[in-house]
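Hi U.,

Before I forget, here's the chain from the pilot set. I'm dumping it here mostly so it's searchable later in email.
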Amino acid sequence: MEGYDEFLKFTVPNIIPNLRIYFFFGIIIIIVIALIAYFYYNVKKIDTNYLAVIERLNKYFYSLGPCTVYLIPFIDNLTTIDLMQFSFLCEFDNIVNSDGISFKINTDTTAKFTISEDKNKFHSITSKLPSTQHIAYFIENNLKAILSIELLNDENGIYHLARNRDKFEKTIKEKLTTEMKEKCIEIKDFKITELKDSEGILEKFTQNV
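Structure:
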């Protein structure tokens, strides 16, 4: 027992100060990690052309433009909206193909303004299209023209269209993308949500397939 007491006498006083140092540095490391996590997850920079919508306790709180946003952990929720991107639906009636069959076509388009290297060109275009409503109308007119041309030039007829609807949709998107690129507008997504003909041929074909 005397040897054990002598061992404690010399070792314990040395261990306790070390434990205090380890504990102190451990607390500092935890604080540093917590601060890094806070700034990473709760301090957000909102870029130009984006709108930040803040929800506090799952209720709308306020909106901000380009800035740095500080969020309260577990209380605030941030949603960013790209002001340069927008979606819209189009409905086209009485588009006639090469067989004289009338079509009804509904589309869903997502578009976005792109800043080209020629900023003078971008500003001249956006000044003529002051709102997303005007832009949608502008795209709709071009889309209608493309649909009309494609249907009139489809020499294979309506059954070919029924069998190759995906290919038809892809062709329309590619041509619309090419047309809008010159206007600093990028087509992010394009879908034909409804495609019907006046004779009901497409519907019968789909049922038989």
